[in-house]
Every structure is written in C-alpha cells, then in structure tokens.
Amino acid sequence: MDDTPKTNVEHDSLLMHASGRPGKIEIVPTKPLTTQRDLSLAYSPGVAAPCKEIARDPSLAYDYTAKGNLVAVISNGTAVLGLGDLGALAGKPVMEGKAVLFKKFADVDAIDLEVDTKEVDQFVNAVRYLGPSFGGINLEDIKAPECFIIEQQLRELMDIPVFHDDQHGTAIIAAAGLINACELTGRNVRDIKVVVNGAGAAGIACLELIKAMGCRHENVILCDTKGVIYKGRESGMNQWKSAHAVPTEARTLAEALEGADMFLGLSVKGAVTPEMVAAMAPQPIIFAMANPDPEITPEEVRTVRKDAIVATGRSDYPNQINNVLGFPYIFRGALDVRARTINEEMKVAAAKAIAALAREDVPDEVAAAYSGRRLRFGPEYIIPVPFDPRLIATIPPAVAKAAMESGVAQKPIIDMAAYRHELSERLDPMAATMNAIASEVIGNPQRVVFAEGEEEKAIRAAVAFRNAGYGHPVLVGREDRIEDTMKAMGLGSLDGIEIHNAAKSSHTKEYTDFLYKRLQREGYLYRDCQRLVNQDRNVFGACLVAMGDADSMVTGLTRTHAVVVKEIAKVIDTRPNELMFGLTMLITRGRTVFICDTTIHETPTAEQLADIATGAANKVRQMGHEPRVAFLSYSTFGSPQGGETTRAREAKEILDRRSVDFEYDGEMGANVALDAELQKVYPFTRLSGPANVLVMPGLHSANISYKLLHKLGGGTVIGPMLIGLAAPVQIVHLDANVSDVVNMALIAAHDALKR
Ligand SMILES: NC(=O)C1=CN([C@@H]2O[C@H](COP(=O)(O)OP(=O)(O)OC[C@H]3O[C@@H](n4cnc5c(N)ncnc54)[C@H](OP(=O)(O)O)[C@@H]3O)[C@@H](O)[C@H]2O)C=CC1
Ligand SMILES: CC(=O)C(=O)O
Ligand SMILES: [Mg+2]
C-alpha cells in the first residue's frame, strides 16, 4: 500500500474516477434500437446486407460502419506519463483520458486498448490485425526505444494512420511553441542553442522535428539519465541516441545548459535546478514538459530568471505544451481525407497552424474557461489553450490540406470553406445557424455600426468581424482612443474599419436637422437634438443607419436594454403595421426554438400577439427555418378554461382572418407544442410537427422560460434579437462577450441584407 500522503488534486481525481459509472468512458449507440423493426435492421437479419457489401468492396466499411471515425488508443503502459513502467492496466486511466479527449475536442470516437506485453513482436502482432476495426491507431505511453520499432513496423504493416502521440503529438506542439517563443525573443531557429533532456520517445521526436525546422545539429545537446550524449559515449546508448550525439566537452545537464537558449524537458520531475536556469542565455526558453510534474516549476524559474519564457505540460500553469492540442485535431484532419498515413508535411502544417492561432485575438469565452486570465500573445501565452473552440476549425483543415498536397489523401476535400464550417458545427450547436447567416453576409458585406466604439469589447468584435470577412465595421468613438486600445491589445491595423467621432463629424448638422424634425413636437429644442447627436453614441450610431451612412448597428455593452431601446426609438421607427419585440433563439438537445416576446411587451393584446407571431415567423424563415408557431398558454384548446387564455385563442383567430402563409395554432401548453406524439391527441391541430416558434402570453413567461432553459437545460442562446425596426439595430446584453457582439453584429448585417 502507498502511504505517501495524497495531494488535493490526487484525492479529488480518485473520487472523480470512482464516482457514478467508474472510469471516464461509455459507448452510445447512434441508431434507434427501440422497436422490433429497428432490431431487424441494425442486427439480424438486416445487418447481413452491409456485411455482404463490405465483403464485396472493403472501402464500403467507411460508409456502413464506424471505422472512419474510430481511433484506437493503444498502450502497453511502459512509459505512463513520466511515471515510468506502470504496466498496461495501470495505464488505463490515461488511455481512457486520451479517448475522451479525442471525442471532446474533435468528435473522434476513440477506445482504449491496453496490451499486456513488453515484447515488441508480440505487441506489433496484437495491433497489426486490428486494422479492420479502426480508422487510425494512436500509440501512447510506450517507452523508447521499443516505441520506435513498434511504430515503424506498424506503419509498414497497416494501411491506416499509425501515430505515436508521445513522439509526434508532443513534437508538433513543442515546435509550435518554439516558433512563437523565437518570435517573441527575436531568435532564429537556425541559430538557437538547445538542450533536450530525455532521450526517449518524446525527446528524440521533438529533437528531430526542430532539426527539420532548421535547428542545427551541432547546436543541440541531448541528455538522458547518464548525462550528455556526446560523440563517443558508449554506455546506455542506442541507434536513436547515437544519431544525435555531438562532439562536446559538456558531460552533465548543468554543463550543457550553460549559455543555452532553450531547454526542452521530456524526462522527469525535478531534473533541472534554478542554478542551471541561471546559467542559461538571456531570455531563456524553458519547456519543462514532464508529466505530471515538470522538470522545474515556473515558480522556481522565476526565483532566478524573470526574463524566461516558461511552458509546462500541465493545465494549471500558463503555456501548456501538451499533445492534447495535437492528437485530436491531427486525427480529425487525417480521418476526414482518409489519409493513408500521417506524414512530415501534415505534422509541420499542424505546428504552423497552432503557432499562428496563438498570435490571434482570443475570444472571451476561452479566457473565461481560464478564470478570466487575459490570454494575449506574449511570454505567458505562446500557445493556444486546450479549450479554444477555434482549434477544431484551424488544425484539421491545415492537416487535411497538407495530406492532399503530399498525395496521401484518399478522399480529398473539395470545398475547404465548407469543411471548416462543418468542423465548427461538430461541437458548437449554434455554429450551423451562424455559418448559414455568415455565408449570406460574406457575399454581400454590410457596414455595421459598433456604437460603443471605444469599448474594448466593441473594438475586438469589430476587428473579428472584419477579419472574418463579415463586412465593414464602423466604430463610433475618438480615433486616438480607439487606436490606443488597438495598439495596447496588439490588434493590428485599422484597415477596413471606419471611425466616426460624433463630436467632430461632418454629419452632425445633417443628423441634428433630421432629429429635430422628428422630435420638435416631443418637447425637444434644436440644441437638445444637437447634444444628443454629439454626445449620445446610440443616437449618433442610429442616425448613421437611418440616414443611409451605414447599414445596421450593434450596441448594448454599456447601457441596459430598455434605455437603448428608448434612445434608438428617437431616431428609428418601427416598420409600418409591425411591432417591435424581442425574439430569442435557443438551441437545446439538438432542437432549435425561437421564443418571443422576450423584451418589450409586458402583457401583449391578442392583436399584438398576432403581430409578434407574424414578425417572428418572417425572421425565422429568413434565418433558414420553416416556422411552426404555437401560441402558448397553461391551457390546451380550451382546457382548462380561464380568463388569461383568451388572448392566445384570439390571436389565432386574428391570424385566421389575416390568412398568413405560415403554420400556427393555439392556445396550447408547451408540452403539446413541442411533442409531435402528444399533438396526435388533438388530430385537428394545424401544426405539422413540433412548434419551433413559441409565442408566450407575456413578457414574464417569455423572459423567464428562455433564461431557465439556458441555465438549467444547458441551451445555447442567441438574442434577444430586436425585430420590427425600420432600420436594423441589435442590442447585446450588458455582460456580452466579444463573440456575442460579433454574432449580434452578424445578425444585424443579415437584417440589413434581408430588409
Ligand atoms: N507535455 C507533453 O505533451 C508530453 C510530455 N511527455 C513527458 O516526457 C517524459 C518522457 O516521456 P517518454 O519520452 O514517453 O518516455 P520514455 O520512457 O520513452 O523516455 C524517457 C526518457 O527520459 C530519460 N530520463 C529519465 N529520467 C531522467 C533524468 N533524471 N534526467 C535525464 N533524462 C531522464 C530517459 O533516459 P534513459 O534513456 O537514460 O533511460 C529516457 O531517455 C515524461 O515525463 C512524459 O510525461 C511525454 C509526451 C508528451
Ligand atoms: C501528455 C502525454 O502524453 C504524456 O505525458 O505522456
Ligand atoms: Mg503520453
């Protein structure tokens, strides 16, 4: 029994692994298995059909089975993290972990297989015959030098990608970190002096990749448990170590590190001391990647070197250089083009894509997953974080493209832009809708006003909006302030972004005249209008839109929804015969519903409910959904009867008289509206399926229900979108993040396009 006291993390991790269903993985069927017919299709006798087809043409396995999206994580447990040879069974928690990371980050189905042998031939034989089951093989935590032979042999024997994660996954991420660390410290890979500690799977692979990137052989010293691997050393050698032996006087790690620019640690906890770091070159680059504990902690480095760039393999320090950033996405790209192998070109493409992503502005929700830590390219952020949702749309396309260009793709991707969309939709339920809107907007760029143009979030959103090709952002604010913020945040140039300073604008007179005409009989003097135009960004921004100097507007970061609505109403009317209201889109459990009115009318009349339904149906159709509107109530078709249920009934009757071109019915309970089976109890209902537009009887129920669904149901929300204005304006929540602002700006641009 191990008497060593457990740390909090260890204690909590044991509890987590043992809680509920033990371990971290289960298998979920993808086809219905509820009726006898289901069974006869999925299993005998129906299943014979795909079997016979695959026997005739093996490539059909990719069409009829899970093979194409299935990866085996295979280990013999001889190098479990940096814990050494714990054996196959003890490595299982890590392998289950890798399998769930495949799923979580890249929607690759993966299963762990622990093979209980240290013999190379036995291991190779155990794996080589598994080829038919899988689309790829991820070898994990197999010690060197056996891992080199195993991988080599399996690559030759199998016709699917075989990839030893500890070698190549690690090397790719380390290379990406190196590219950025060199950029930050003004170094060139060709000139840097590197010390690699650990001459095993990860160490040798990192070394080989950085040499392939230009690092000079004579500039790298490799060390292992016996110290420096110098030319002529005889003990503890193998052919992989010998290939990297250099003539040097240095014999210990400490000697090797004197004056070195970079330390790459792929060995064990505590292998490096602060004294060794102190002897390195100025601005040393230290990647202490041993897991679970690094060769030296960032705190220890800081005691001697404030100027160091430090990375570890752990999640709880900045700069996590860990293969989790690589293997899910590399396999995603390889599987999607049905690559025969994962070659050097694909690895280099992945490293470059990861490095480039770290230099881009980071969405707020990513920072939120890291306790609000500001993630901005610099010494504390040289590599993207694992919870960055952009990784899925960034790395696999780079890998797939490299596979296609290097001739190993058996199923090339024709439309890369569509592939990127498809990737982002795999993990983000909102992405499909937003991508559909984006694809319309991109071909017809609109000028969108970001009224709170001096706000950091608005500026970042405008930059993201421009960079995504969604249109031309127009910022309302002072140029110098905006430029200072851009500079401080490293947001690049203002190209393509228009700035309007309300106080100095040449439009002021024109806008004041316009506003005065609207408000002179509402108690406003000319100078009041002048002040509004000069000083109120929402008013000025709305004037830009109303007067045709911009197409639409987004605002709301600094004032409440109700206040913004009042300000906008001074400038922009609602469309004739329409009603202004809030429409909230919610995606939950694979379903998309629109709820209204979530913002404006506290107790709408029957007439207003009918208007809301019509406005919502139009908008929903614009967004690519065929509306099925339900007027909701606590009663369904007259049962129970109550005074409050009549408005919904009357709204339906008003629509009957208007003969509108969409499906609607009511009044009905939410259960009936959303359940096709329950609707069969009312065979007269006109809904042809579950409703997707829920017209609530009042603001209370609308607003409360979308927030409940969001918080308790785990739904994803867009909006409330403001519907019914004569010129499009969208209002974000006060606590919106940059992505929310970009999404609402996109909707505002789409509104303008569809006007
Ligand atoms: N951050 C990341 O993403 C990853 C980190 N790693 C980490 O890298 C380390 C090595 O893993 P891996 O390559 O798979 O394992 P291997 O068993 O293949 O290699 C281990 C190597 O480390 C060397 N080593 C052990 N102790 C010391 C020491 N005190 N000083 C110098 N060298 C030492 C061994 O030397 P010798 O040859 O003399 O026995 C051997 O060369 C682990 O800590 C692992 O967690 C691995 C993969 C990914
Ligand atoms: C991260 C990893 O794969 C390792 O430490 O072995
Ligand atoms: Mg590993």
Automatic annotation (TrEMBL):
Domain Malic enzyme N-terminal, chain residue ranges per copy: 22-155
Top-level taxon of origin: Bacteria
Record has Metal-binding as a keyword: yes
Domain Malic enzyme NAD-binding: 167-404
GO molecular function: acyltransferase activity; malic enzyme activity; metal ion binding; NAD binding; oxidoreductase activity, acting on the CH-OH group of donors, NAD or NADP as acceptor
Alphabetical GO biological process terms: malate metabolic process
Gene3D superfamilies: 3.40.50.10950, Isocitrate/Isopropylmalate dehydrogenase-like, Malic enzyme, N-terminal domain, NAD(P)-binding Rossmann-like Domain
Catalytic site positions: 98
UniProt: NADP(+) binding residues: 80-87
CDD domains: NAD_bind_2_malic_enz
Residues binding a divalent metal cation, per UniProt: 140-141, 166, 291
Known cofactor(s): Mg(2+); Mn(2+)
PANTHER family on file: NADP-DEPENDENT MALIC ENZYME
Family classification: In the C-terminal section; belongs to the phosphate acetyltransferase and butyryltransferase family.
Full protein name: Allosteric NADP-dependent malic enzyme
